[in-house]
Amino acid sequence: MIMKEKFARWDILFLQYLKRDWKKIIIWVLGIGLFSSGFIPAFKELAKGQGLVGMYETMQNPAMISMVGPTPIDSAADYTLGAMYVHEMLLFCGLITMIVSLLHVVGHTRKEEDLGLTELVRSFQIGRQANSLATMAETVLINVLLAVVISVVMISFNADTITVEGSFLFGASIGAAGVLGAVLGLLFAQIMPNSSGATGVGLGLVGLLYMTRAGTDASNPDWSMINPMGWTYLTYPFTDNNWMPLVFVLIFSLVVIIISFVLEGSRDMGAGYLPEREGRAHAKSSLLSVQGLFARLNRGAIIGWFIGFLVMGAAYGSIYGDMQTFLQSNEVMQQMFTQADVSLEASFTSTIIMVMAVLVSILPIVIINKLFAEENRSQLSQIFSTKVSRTELFWASVGLAIFAGVLGTLLSVAGLGGTALSVMESDSSMGMADFFAAGFNLWPSVLFFTGLSALVIGWVPGAGKLVYVYLAYSFMLNYFGGIVDFPDWFLKTAIQDWLPQMPVESFDLPVFITITAISIVLMVIGYIGYKRRDMAEGA
Amino acid sequence: MTEVVKVEGVQKTFGKAKALSDVTFTVKAGEVVGFIGPNGSGKSTTIRILLGIIKRNAGNAEIFGKDVWKNSLEIHKRISYVPGDVTLWGGLTGGEIIDLFLKLHGGGDKERRDYLIERFELDPKKKAKSYSKGNRQKVGLIAALSVESDLYIFDEPTSGLDPLMESIFQEEVEKLKNAGKSILLSSHILSEVERLADKVVIIRQGEIVETGTLDELRYLTRSTVKMETNGDITAMAEVAGVFDFEQDGNKATFSAEQEHLNEILLAAGKLDVIKFDSSPPTLEDLFMRHYEG
Lengths: 539, 293
Ligand SMILES: Nc1ncnc2c1ncn2[C@@H]1O[C@H](COP(=O)(O)OP(=O)(O)OP(=O)(O)O)[C@@H](O)[C@H]1O
Ligand SMILES: [Mg+2]
Prior knowledge:
Strand content of chain B: 25-35%
Oligomer: heterodimer
CATH topology of the largest domain in chain B: Rossmann fold
CATH architecture of the largest domain in chain B: 3-Layer(aba) Sandwich
Order of helices and strands of chain B: EEEHEEHEHHHEHEHEEHEEEHEH
Mean pLDDT of chain B: 89
Radius of gyration of chain A: 24 Å
Strand content of chain A: under 5%
Structural class of chain B: alpha/beta
Number of domains of chain B: 2
Largest sheet of chain A: none
Radius of gyration of chain B: 23 Å
Number of helices of chain B: 10
Helix content of chain A: over 70%
Helix content of chain B: 25-40%
Number of strands of chain B: 14
Mean pLDDT of chain A: 88
Order of helices and strands of chain A: HHHHHHHHHHHHHHHHHHHHHHHH
Number of domains of chain A: 2
Bound molecules: adenosine-5'-triphosphate, magnesium ion
CATH superfamily of the largest domain in chain B: P-loop containing nucleotide triphosphate hydrolases
Number of helices of chain A: 24
Low-confidence stretches of chain A: none
Shape of chain B: elongated
């Protein structure tokens, strides 16, 4: 009886949400669905000739395994198209799905609660927890749809070794990753005191799970089985076809959902389980300026990301030791690297640094978009009517973003280089200076994203999120550029690709200066727009 | 008297929608001007233009004789503003936010701040996200009232305040008024405007429809008369300046135009009056007339 009351009319909300979100659902299901399944023809090309063998050898590298996960195959001859496809795609696609689902659930539960929408909904004849149930049902349904779309598209390619069972397992694994993200989102929506806390800790945990599995995958994949993220890719479709991990996902999700509902049932609306502290009656002098205010407002995000950068660098750095051992035991690879006259460390470093530069670019975008979020919520109107100018607001924000980009680069490279040098036993060809050179070589690309955000906020402030889309796009291009052969002009649509890949290639000062200059010009143009436009307020 | 705020033929469109079509009024030095009008009539939009938050499409707007868009910084040094819906950073405490505003405005008075925090009974140690609507509003008010300014702009400043706090606000504004400050006060609380304002500006659908002192506006509006006579009261219905005549035996109620007051009194005098009761138009009558258009 009480159960029924708590969830009363959740079905009405559920239908309402499907209606409200249908566009988002279509983009989500088709976007991730086609991305996860659509590369089969490209991989078929890749597998031709000695492709599979070469790829197998490359992917045995612990550095690669730490990024994309392991394969159950232990001889190059058994490395089929299906095995390769799963090896390179499954973990990554599952990760994206997990994050999107987590954001969706927090956005429609805790965030709406913070905005006061839930209060309104609850005043109708709707159960206290109907909203959470409806959102979960919606998210699960979306992930089921996604799994079906992926499976069907894969089967339709009718490719060798892409079996029907394997295709369904592949789709289901990605769907399961989405469900995991959703339940984690729901859990943190109950525990944390507000939605940004829930998003931050949720994403942080996802990152942590990814990092730990990088370590266990490289040493012993069995250990990854105690990691919930492991269950999403240790199913090994097309090879072992192991459905067992998905059963774990199911049980785990049910337990977390029940815990979340119990937690939600016994907390007040708008409150969390982690208490809020009493604050100060008067401001510290460090807060009393526009810069101080922005630093304070972004403090949580900046510290969180900084720790993330450091941990990420250290996690990747820890692989360097395994990598050396691996190289000594593998003749084919040894030959490959000696022929190309680059060390394995150098080649790996150039790839990892690129990945890190992309991740470091997120923080400046977050900081600049925050300026518009503040403006949009009218939080700046009373400040704006003091002698603070738009010039100050804009450059304080951009300055903070630039600072975050520099320090972020520094921290991630320090984490990477420091750990790498300490775990490598035999002498390395690289020193700390090489790591810093490689890291700051890509810094103009971080600055470019800062400039792009500044431009957007000055002229089309509503479109701030699009910068993330371009960042994700350039990340994918770089990530897959190494695997699939894209034409050069296409690769060049990603900003990072203009810069040389240090330490494999050598530093290019003109390009460095040009991209830095372009970024600064973007900021100045953005500033001109910001000075002239109406503040988005009361709209 | 010098004009502190001068707005002339200001227009503003959002996309295709015209929010302001012709806004003209002034606030003179030491004057308290009530700015009133129905929801969506353009009060906040006008105020945002005055603050340089948005840009007008046409017309002139000056504060202290300076253009509100081009010279906003110089202007802002000498004004204080409180929006109707004070939004605050959830993670900062009320005390921190007030200190920040004082600092950014410059010239804040710490003693005055502490006095106001006590008067408005605000707990400055609480995080802003746990403040109620009224308490958020208090933060904005304390910040604006603690600094020394020449012009105060209030956009529905008391929304969400309880009646006690509302009257404390009014007392504080009266002090400002007595100290010769200029004030532009937009409000839906008519008693507040009636108590504080020297002059009223009424806006409707983006256009100023009436400006004047309360007395002047009252003159334009009809008083309500209730009378009882021994003579035949029906005769009153024909007198010039009598409207909405309603009769109940030898009693009648009607509205009387101020210009024709003399004729009405003369006519009434002939009817052997038992009771004559004239109430001046309340501010509410005045607004109703304009709001309903
Ligand atoms: N940024 C904006 N974009 C589009 N339309 C706007 C914007 N700001 C205001 N408007 C429109 O302009 C008109 C005037 O709005 P305004 O907020 O000035 O009214 P108001 O008199 O302050 O009303 P209220 O008494 O409800 O506060 C409204 O029709 C509103 O919808
Ligand atoms: Mg308004």
